[in-house]
Design goal:
By secondary structure, the protein is mainly beta. The protein is built from 2 helices and 38 strands. The protein has a domain of 60 residues.
Length: 460
């Protein structure tokens, strides 16, 4: 082998390595453009190739609030695959109760700060993203494996039209998947105690055809604090593909950081999850999405449409604060409403499964759905009804009602449908009769006549 060939091979390897070697880029200037800026770091990460992870850290020399604020007048360069941006690396104290240490502020309206299309692997931590009531904090499509905030490394996001926005040009476009949003403060000020039209996001999430989405979490510090002007989540599926899972867990929606104070004077925090609309009115739904709504405190309404898979709603405080007493509802309709859904459960047998659903116009409603179990929840102080249904004439099964024939201070008896499970509750102190405090579960007798024969040795 000649020396010339050896040198050529060595040089080729060195050139190749410049495109495969993971680099760390340090932001040292808070200018909008130029060397050492965030724009410069994102451009260098993109030029470094997509086969490795590139890290962007911050070391702005002026650690004052002004020194850690980056003013931008247009979108940052498009993100590339496998990029890790960590504002918690910046010296200085976090902003308020957040984990954010670097502010990126829009100085003109109508653009998105971060853009991510057809890439994989995006992590963004410790940034305060501030809009002017338009545009998005993150505009993305056909993008996979996104982690926006996590416990101890959350972001702040305020003042956007749609904080997180994914749109589709064609229903056949591939879905974005594996998206996680945890530990963030969105739509409030830095104290987590106040919100106004300068901090609200009009929509927090405006999503189309996404798969495997986590908003919040059940771990310490994984839940988000969110306050919006209209919708926390607007999610539509425009094709019947499997949607994977959607987990909305451990969030405070429409309240302050304590979960006791409403931060708006209007209806807010609604969640609308719409499956593929094929024009049918079948019970079973159309979209294979595993929806879990658990351990949230919310002022708003949750609506599911044409979701086929077994959904779970457990451990939430809906319309009622963290203390299970305070009225936080701005809901003028059903707090939970299900249309053309397959099946699911609201509550459950474990004490942690119980939902507190209170103070709205109505608690739970459904229209043209399959079997939905509502078990061991606490309903109280609704204006119209705790549990309702529309147009039972659509159903072939009988109405799930019982008849009480005998009632005293220690005994209740009546009839129910064969194979029923009947739960008994203490009523609330509000005008309507609602089941507030769970007592016990009884079963009709085994002869199948539908009689409830068990004597309850408890005061009613």
């Amino acid at each position: 082998m000649s020396i010339r060939f050896i040198l050529f091979t060595l040089m080729a390897c060195l050139v190749l390595s410049t495109h495969l070697y993971a680099n760390t880029f340090i932001v040292t200037s808070n200018a909008n453009r130029g060397a050492g800026t965030l724009r410069d770091a994102i451009e260098k990460a993109a030029a470094n190739g997509s086969g490795v992870t590139d890290t962007i850290f911050f070391n702005l020399p002026d650690v004052s609030r002004t020194g850690r604020t980056i003013l931008v007048d247009s979108s940052l360069p498009d993100l590339s695959s496998h990029i890790y941006i960590d504002g918690t690396s910046q010296p200085g104290t976090p902003f308020g109760i957040s984990d954010a240490r670097v502010e990126i502020r829009s100085v003109t309206p109508y653009f998105s700060l971060f853009i991510a299309f057809r890439i994989t692997g995006v992590e963004i931590y410790g940034l305060y993203l501030k809009g002017i009531y338009t545009g998005s904090a993150l505009y993305f499509g056909e993008t996979n494996d996104v982690q926006f905030g996590k416990s101890g490394k959350g972001n702040m996001v305020t003042g956007f039209g749609q904080a997180f926005y994914t749109n589709i040009q064609d229903p056949a476009d591939p879905a974005s998947s594996n998206l996680s949003f945890q530990g963030n403060i969105m739509g409030t000020d830095e104290s987590g105690d106040k919100a106004d039209f300068f901090t609200y996001n009009y929509h927090t999430f405006y999503l189309r055809n996404v798969r495997n989405v986590t908003i919040g979490g059940v771990g310490n510090g994984e839940g988000n604090l969110m306050c919006d002007q209209t919708m926390m989540l607007e999610l539509f599926y425009t094709k019947p593909d499997s949607a994977g899972y959607l987990k909305i867990q451990g969030n405070k929606i429409g309240t302050d950081r304590t979960g006791l104070k409403v931060l708006t004077s209007f209806r807010t925090g609604d969640v609308n999850i719409s499956g593929y609309n094929d024009g049918s009115d079948y019970f079973e739904g159309t979209t294979d999405a595993d929806v879990e709504i658990t351990n949230n405190i919310s002022t708003g309404r949750f609506q599911l449409f044409k979701i086929k898979n077994y959904f779970k709603v457990k451990g939430n405080k809906l319309g009622v604060g963290a203390d299970n007493v305070t009225n936080i509802s701005y809901n003028s309709a059903y707090t939970l409403f299900f249309l053309y859904c397959g099946q699911g459960i609201i509550g459950g047998s474990a004490s942690a499964d119980k939902n507190y659903i209170a103070y709205g116009e109505q608690g739970v409603g459904q229209f043209h759905c399959g079997s939905i179990t509502i078990s061991r929840n606490s309903f109280f102080c609704h204006a119209s009804e705790g549990i309702g249904y529309y147009n039972w004439a659509y159903y072939t099964r009988p109405k799930p009602f019982i008849t009480i024939n005998s009632l005293s201070s220690t005994y209740v008896a009546g009839t129910a449908l064969p194979n029923s499970t009947v739960e008994l509750f203490y009523d609330d102190n509000c005008p309507l009769c609602e089941g507030k405090t769970y007592l016990t579960t009884v079963l009709p007798d085994q002869m199948g006549t539908g009689n409830i024969a068990e004597v309850l040795a408890v005061p009613l």
